Amino acid sequence: VHRWSFNEASGTTFANTGTLGGAAAQLKGSGASLTGSGVDLPGGASATQAYIDLPNGVASGKDVSPGGYGSVSY
After folding, report:
1. What is the pLDDT of residue 49?
2. Per the confidence metrics, is the pTM higher than 0.90?
3. What is the DSSP string of 3-65?
């Protein structure tokens, strides 16, 4: 339904290539690097460490009821 491959060689935006499309994910914080097949998140101080910011609502409220996903994989 939603899919972000994180295989970009540069930049900080990751397109949603899933069947529903939708909002892009963003790389935020400092120290991260793109590997061409993933993202290296080196850790660091909690105030500045890098992270991947997925769009709001991607996993919350997605239960097995009609319209829900039933599962989420990261």
Report:
1. 92
2. no
3. ------SSSSEE---STT--PPEEEESBS-EE-SSSEE-----TTTB-EEEPPTTSSTT--SS
